Amino acid sequence: MLQDKELKKDFDPNYGLASLTTNKLDGYAIGDVKLNTYDYPNGNLADYSRLSIFTSSKQKNNYLGFNYSSVNQEETKSIIDYLKKTYPAYHQSDTRGNGESFFWDIPKLDAWIFIYQGISTDKNDKNFFSTNFIFVKRRTRMENSTDSKVITIMDYYKMMFPDVL
Description:
The chain is mainly beta. 13% of the residues lie in helices and 35% in strands.
């Protein structure tokens, strides 16, 4: 992965995690679903799919997980279907018309998976879903912290989205 010249060192604003980010997605996959570089037709400036690979710090690239933000509607459905089939024990939340929301706790992978959707609008006032797929190692703390007083990504979701978990 680190040979990919498209990966740029970054910092996730939501979780405070160091990351390597790209919107050049060809060659990446989630399970058996191949990701594609994609801009939403008639979308706004930020309406494109992108991948952020979470790392332990900007100096050390120890893998912690990823956030795949997708605006590709068909690809999103395929990934959700793949995850449901592969990991049938999940929690789905009612988002009251704002898309779908899922959570998986997968001990055999030592990981949590969070999926949530939001509604975006293109330049023609047509609504579509923006979907975030967050895969992170269990016990990962905000801001790449090792301090047990700093909340985990799971704690963050419980606080920010109590209806989801």
